Amino acid sequence: MRGLTLLTALAMAVPAVPTIASAQARVIVREPEVTVRWNREHYDRYENSHWHREFRGRWTPLATGYNARTERQFINLGGHGGYRKLRVESVRGEPVILKIAIEFADKTSQAVEYRESLPSGTGEVIDLNGDVRRINRIIVYTDPHSRGTYSIYGA
């Protein structure tokens, strides 16, 4: 008896097969095309800064969305590419950057003491002495009590 009830329930749950008449009455509805609009304020908010005029569109993301909740972050680049400048930009919150150490492929290094918070949307540019240099890794020392994320770009 239970088997018959189960089979009846399964047969009722299966949708009915459309007939020829209902298949011919099918209407195709087209969705309107979506136009993507870019928020120019987000991309052009640094128009008055030095790096915006010189390197607009040339910044290559090296590290995006790093959290400043640990004392230091190691960003390994493996010596690929050559860069003249680095830019550290606050993405969200106000991360406190204490120091940035850059280790180059030729085993030399450069350290930049910063010891300030980066308000959201602002950035700092580090000049690598005007030479195109290959970078092995970047070590960013942050205050673990600060909240925020940052990204690093190279040009």
Number of strands: 8
The major pleated sheet works out as: 4 strands, antiparallel
- CATH homologous superfamily name of the domain at 56-154? Galactose-binding domain-like
The CATH topology of the domain at 56-154 is given as Jelly Rolls
> Can you name the CATH architecture of the domain at 56-154?
Sandwich
Q: How confident is the prediction overall: mean pLDDT?
A: 76
Low-confidence stretches: 34-45
- Computed over alpha carbons, the radius of gyration is 28 Å
Write down the secondary-structure element order.
HHHHEEEEEEEE
Percent helix, as a range, is 10-25%
CATH classification class of the domain at 56-154? Mainly Beta
Question: Termini separation (Å)?
Answer: 77 Å
Q: Widest sheet: strand order?
A: 1-8-3-6
- What percentage of the residues does DSSP assign to strands (E)? 35-45%
Treating each run of at least 4 consecutive H or I residues as one helix, how many helices? 4
Shape: elongated
Class based on secondary structure composition and strand pairing: alpha+beta
Strand and helix layout:
Layout: H1 2-13, H2 20-24, H3 40-43, H4 50-55, E1 60-67, E2 72-76, E3 85-93, E4 96-104, E5 109-117, E6 123-127, E7 135-142, E8 148-154
Antiparallel strand pairs: 1-8, 2-7, 3-6, 3-8, 4-5, 4-7
Give your account of this protein's structure.
The chain has a domain at 56-154: Sandwich (Jelly Rolls), CATH 2.60.120.260. 17% of the residues lie in helices and 39% in strands. It contains 4 helices and 8 strands. It has a 4-stranded antiparallel β-sheet, with no helix packed on it. A 4-stranded antiparallel β-sheet has the order 2-7-4-5, with no helix packed on it. The longest helix is centred in the first third of the chain and has 12 residues, at 2-13.
